[in-house]
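Re: the 90-residue chain
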Amino acid sequence: MLFGRILRLPCDILFGRPSDTPSSPNEYLNNLEARLESVHVFDSERIKLASERMKIRYDSGATGHHFKEGDQVWMYNPKRRRGLSPKSQQ
């Protein structure tokens, strides 16, 4: 709006306005709100699918060691040598 009137450009005068142009600001806002809602729903579904794929991929790589009480296992407990830094011990 310009000076309380609907702005008309020279191309609008020559070719007319497109038929799908909203006639009022309220109609435009309603259309915009509906489009934003549909985009939000679409994005949330895609994020959920991506999250499920990442979980499946992570779970497939995670080792499934199931130990029971009393099972014998190896324990890694390296001893630090005095005088050498941990970086030099290897």
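The two ends are 75 Å apart (CA to CA).
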